[in-house]
TrEMBL record:
<feature type="binding site">
    <location>
        <position position="74"/>
    </location>
    <ligand>
        <name>Mg(2+)</name>
    </ligand>
</feature>
<feature type="binding site">
    <location>
        <begin position="138"/>
        <end position="140"/>
    </location>
    <ligand>
        <name>2-[(2R,5Z)-2-carboxy-4-methylthiazol-5(2H)-ylidene]ethyl phosphate</name>
    </ligand>
</feature>
<dbReference type="InterPro" id="IPR013785">
    <property type="entry name" value="Aldolase_TIM"/>
</dbReference>
<comment type="pathway">
    <text>Cofactor biosynthesis; thiamine diphosphate biosynthesis; thiamine phosphate from 4-amino-2-methyl-5-diphosphomethylpyrimidine and 4-methyl-5-(2-phosphoethyl)-thiazole: step 1/1.</text>
</comment>
<dbReference type="InterPro" id="IPR034291">
    <property type="entry name" value="TMP_synthase"/>
</dbReference>
<dbReference type="GO" id="GO:0004789">
    <property type="term" value="F:thiamine-phosphate diphosphorylase activity"/>
</dbReference>
<feature type="binding site">
    <location>
        <begin position="189"/>
        <end position="190"/>
    </location>
    <ligand>
        <name>2-[(2R,5Z)-2-carboxy-4-methylthiazol-5(2H)-ylidene]ethyl phosphate</name>
    </ligand>
</feature>
<keyword id="KW-0460">Magnesium</keyword>
<protein>
    <recommendedName>
        <fullName>Thiamine-phosphate synthase</fullName>
        <ecNumber>2.5.1.3</ecNumber>
    </recommendedName>
</protein>
<feature type="binding site">
    <location>
        <position position="93"/>
    </location>
    <ligand>
        <name>Mg(2+)</name>
    </ligand>
</feature>
<comment type="function">
    <text>Condenses 4-methyl-5-(beta-hydroxyethyl)thiazole monophosphate (THZ-P) and 2-methyl-4-amino-5-hydroxymethyl pyrimidine pyrophosphate (HMP-PP) to form thiamine monophosphate (TMP).</text>
</comment>
<comment type="similarity">
    <text>Belongs to the thiamine-phosphate synthase family.</text>
</comment>
<feature type="domain" description="Thiamine phosphate synthase/TenI">
    <location>
        <begin position="11"/>
        <end position="192"/>
    </location>
</feature>
<keyword id="KW-0808">Transferase</keyword>
<feature type="binding site">
    <location>
        <begin position="41"/>
        <end position="45"/>
    </location>
    <ligand>
        <name>4-amino-2-methyl-5-(diphosphooxymethyl)pyrimidine</name>
    </ligand>
</feature>
<dbReference type="Pfam" id="PF02581">
    <property type="entry name" value="TMP-TENI"/>
</dbReference>
<dbReference type="GO" id="GO:0000287">
    <property type="term" value="F:magnesium ion binding"/>
</dbReference>
């Protein structure tokens, strides 16, 4: 599963309802996947669980046949109810062991880690991949930790054998730096959600091709 998961993490889209407002989340995702997005995280911080379930069901329909997994941010209940591919949690959310118990053994569970200690504490018995950063500051998450930069990102990556995805203010001109850090994937928000043409915006990341060793 690890190799396949790393392939999915390569271009990881995190939705933002405000940035996607003009096009809509579902249509933004549909176009972004056509442009090369390989995994989608539904992040809708101010939505209710019921609203997240409805959105997830619509996204599942849009993603049908693409092979692109859908995970839901922070809301494991919604992920289970919508039969999503998994969930992504932060350090202040439900504990990974409890999230795994709810998700079962076959769904994906991602965990955000911002410090060396949280990376070391991430237990592969429960967690499938790590979201590492923020690499740079970003307006889409105002309560983020101190940015790591590429050197800090590389240091975090070196602490765990789990698949990982870099996040935080990343744009196409950061591809070389993220590749050099050893990351398996790039998570992007405004670089795709905030663009008039999400398909073209996703295609701008086409040169991000990590060498995944088995």
């Amino acid at each position: 599963m690890t190799g396949q998961l790393k392939d999915h993490l390569r271009l990881y889209l995190v939705t933002d309802p405000q940035l996607c407002a003009q096009t809509g989340i579902v249509e933004t995702v549909r176009r972004a996947v056509a442009g090369g997005v390989t995994m989608v995280q539904l992040r809708a911080k101010h939505a209710t669980t019921a609203q997240r379930i409805d959105l997830a069901m619509a996204l599942k329909a849009a993603l049908q046949g693409t092979g692109v997994p859908l995970v839901i941010n922070d809301d494991v209940t919604a992920a289970v109810a919508a039969d999503a591919d998994g969930a992504h949690i932060g350090q202040g959310d439900i504990a990974p062991d409890k999230a795994r118990a709810m998700l079962g053994p076959d769904r994906i569970l991602g965990l955000s880690c911002e410090t060396p200690q949280t990376v070391r504490d991430a237990d592969p018995a429960y967690v499938d991949y790590l979201g590492l950063g923020p690499v740079f500051g970003t307006d889409t998450k105002t309560d983020h930790a101190q940015p790591t930069g590429f050197d800090g990102l590389a240091d975090l990556i070196a602490l765990s054998s789990l698949p990982n995805v870099a996040i935080g203010g990343l744009k196409p001109d950061h591809i070389d730096g993220v590749l050099a850090s050893g990351a398996d994937g790039m998570a992007v928000v405004s670089a795709i959600c905030g663009q008039a043409d999400p398909k073209a915006a996703a295609r701008a990341f086409h040169s991000f091709k990590p060498e995944h060793k088995t």
